[in-house]
Please model this.
Amino acid sequence: MSDSARLYAYKALFEAKRLVTRADMMEVAEVSLATFKRDIAKLRDQMGMPILFDKDRGGYYLDRNNLSTEIPGLWFNPEELVALLTIQRLIEQLEPGLVGLKLRPLQKN
Model:
């Protein structure tokens, strides 16, 4: 499972349950404890998700008072970006201007 797919899987668990155990998240994402810890740190520190741990209840939960629970941006791996830009070029040949402006930022490099 890709990094982005794992992060979205964790988010889906948080949306489905009020409290999610570490075992539940590791099972769904099929990751080791070390990868799980890195993923949680990434969600908290880089993505700004308000993930808290309740020691008494033994699980993680989202701070519902904090509204920034969305994972920002579009995430593509290199192969997906190549595929997207290839499709964009094909569409551009068939119907010029259809999606060109929306995808132009991806073409800068």
The chain has two domains: 3-62, 78-107. The longest helix spans residues 78-94. The beta strands are 51-54, 59-62. The chain has a mean pLDDT of 81.
